[in-house]
Amino acid sequence: MPDVILRAPMVDALGHPFWSALIGLIVMTLVMTVAVMYATWYERKFIARVQQRLGPTRTGPFGLLQPIADTFKLLTKEDVRPATADVITFEAAVFAIFVPAFIAFAVVPFTADWVIAPVELSLIFLLAISGLSFIGFLMAGWGSDSKYAFLGGMRAAAQLISYEIPLILAMVGVVMIVASADVYQIILFQDVVPLIVWQPLGFLIFLIAAVAELERQPFDIPTGESEVAGGVFIEYSGIRWSMFQLTAYVNMYVIALLGAFVFLGGWEWPWGRDIGWGYQLFLTVAKMGLFIVFFLWVRATFPRLRIDQLMSYAWKVLIPFALVQIFLNGLVLVYDLPDVFLLITSGAAALLFVFVVYQSVRVQPREPLQMVSVPARSSV
Predict the structure, then answer these.
(1) Which of 206, 263, 280, 326 could tie 196 with a disulfide, CB 3.0–4.6 Å?
(2) Please, what sign has the CA dihedral across residues 318, 127, 190, 185?
């Protein structure tokens, strides 16, 4: 394993850390807004292809102006609020979800020299700030004074808390190997071999828990149209509804970046520091894109789980296997075994994990029809 000695530099173009960080966040917010607009276009096109449709085609060439038309419609749409809603909670819920999602970008190292605010415990900061969203969902559900919204908020809180545990436990296994909770140091650690090789079980657990944290299919129970009519979003419209959607896509970007940095080597692997910042940025965007395409593919192909299946999957499958991963890592590290034992133990546990999941969701084939002779009515 390589020695980690470098530290993340801070972008300080204005000569003062506060103003540089503030300008960086504003620029990142504007960039993410445009990126989210065209992420919706790409998702509609991708899912349409999966379902053998064309997707947006009427507005501009290839439907490229459709996101601009949708944004204009949402900004000019009438903004209504239920007369019995709690005004403060109803209004503040949007910002309780919106603000933490963008603050997470402050500690994301897009390249070796591009970090808005380096933090030594940036991995813990990212996990903590992304876990605040359930408070906003609870506020939106309670403040809307709607049964569907309240039920959706309670479902969102239960789901996010349940899947936050295996997500964090998967990261604990990584921190044990790297001996650091700094995302920058975790990226530097993977200059030769990405951590997905040493932690295949942790990667699988992270991938599944990430889909649940994003509330995307098949884990979209809090916002299911057929069950809770949109959940916490049912009473929101116009620009407030668009802020919820914007936050959902920003969270998808953050989780995709986290997976790319922690398990795929981020901008470091392969040959990131040897070539330069342009190649590093390409690696970051390409690996983030892999996760995003996976999220879209899962949405287009898997049916929605029931609430009991969702909770059982977290507490009976993901969390026990995440604890097994931590135990195996501790075993290798305490006895100072070669690194290849990390792959052997985690790989074997990953195969067992896939087998258990396959057996739990496998549908038993129907028994063949038995032909039974029935006496003729005239003979009775």
Answers:
(1) 263
(2) negative
Residue 90: which of 131, 156, 150, 130 has the closest Cα? 150
> How many other CB atoms are there within 10 angstroms of residue 198's CB atom?
26
Provide the Cα torsion 294, 299, 300, 302; round to 10°. 100
Assign 7 to helix, strand or coil: coil
Q: Which of 101, 217, 200, 203 is nearest to 159 (CA)?
A: 217
- pTM assigned to the model: 0.88
- Separation of alpha carbons 165 and 142, rounded Å: 25
CA 285 from chain centre, in angstroms, equals 16
Contacts of 60 (CB under 8 A, 6+ apart): 66
Instruction: Give the span between the Cα atoms of 212 and 155, in whole angstroms.
Output: 12
Q: Would you place residue 378 in the very low, low, confident or very high pLDDT band (cuts 50, 70, 90)?
A: low
Q: What is the pLDDT of residues 224-239, one digit of tens each?
A: 878 888 888 888 888 8
Token pair of 18 as six digits: 């506060």
Q: Residue 218, preceding bond cis, omega within 30 degrees?
A: yes
The pLDDT-based confidence of 105 (bands split at 50, 70, 90) is confident
Give the count of alpha carbons within 13 A of 312, CB side only. 8
Residue type, 179: A
Q: Are 65 and 41 in contact (CB under 8 A)?
A: no
* 120 contacts: CB under 8 Å, gap ≥ 6: 181, 182
State the residue for tokens 């070539």. Answer: 275
The span from the CA of 124 to the CA of 122, in Å, is 5
Rounded CA-CA distance 43/295 in Å is: 10
User: Residue 121 has what DSSP assignment?
Assistant: T
How far is residue 367's CA from residue 86's CA, in Å, rounded to a whole number? 56
Cα gap 344→260, rounded to integer Å: 22
- Measure the CA–CA gap between 172 and 180, rounded to whole angstroms: 10
Decide: 265 and 178 in contact? Cβ < 8 Å.
no
Distance CA(38)–CA(62), nearest Å, equals: 12
d(CA 330, CA 337): 10
Cα 94 from Cα 99, distance rounded (Å): 9
